[in-house]
Known about the structure:
Order of helices and strands: EEEEEEEHHHEEEEHHHEEH
Strand order of the largest sheet: 1-7-6-3-4
Oligomer: single chain
Amino acid sequence: MEIFFANQPVKITVPLLTSSGVVVTDAIEASYRVINAKGEEVVPSTELVLDEGAPSVEIDIPAEANELEEGKVRAYRQVEVQFSNATHRFQVFEEYLIEAADSLVVTLNSFQTYPDALVLAAETTGLDEFMGATRRDRMAALINAHSVLSRLRYQVIDSEFMRDSQRHIRAWAPSGYVNLTTITPERFATLPDHFVRAITIAQLIEANEALDQFSIHRKRQSGLMSETIGESSMMFRSEKVLNIPVTRRSLDMLRPYLDWGVSLGRG
């Protein structure tokens, strides 16, 4: 499936085929419409000009049909083409995605913008898979890393705040706990710099891990005890693996902020 930038016109070529995949070269009329993921029309039924004997038709979809809804970074479009020859009527479909030029939005699906991620990655070692990936794969991996890291529970206290009776004054979060799945951009901006740096580096580490097809972490999480490739063998320790969705390197980075407590309550 092709992906295009939002708010831009899109040109696609649609083959004129029967339901069994036979090319139709004698079409005499055709029209198309475009719908979104909700089935709503973003381009109403519009007639197409056919070239005689052509096995396909080119469609220019206007930019206004490729606008993103507020708060969205990606959206789906389906192009429905109806055409006919002297004896039959046919229908074919094409689909594509549109996305924002920078699909990473802080707190929505990332802890940092794409440019910021590249700058930080250049300053961080051990991110070869991330640095060698395509822009689209990097973004997808960063979004996945944000989702994984947001599921952990954090307790963040800024050590620069004054103490009162040996207890930190938590001016921005009375409980000290941070829920990264619901945090707003305004509140994220108040978090201590040392925590933001840790979580952004951890996001890069997890993105790199997601792009590594030989990831040892994923092999261990899946229960693999040993692996042999050619003359090379690898053995893992037999103790039970801690079922945590992030890598040890990320855990080490975030250890000062992770809350491992268990809350108990009556049902």
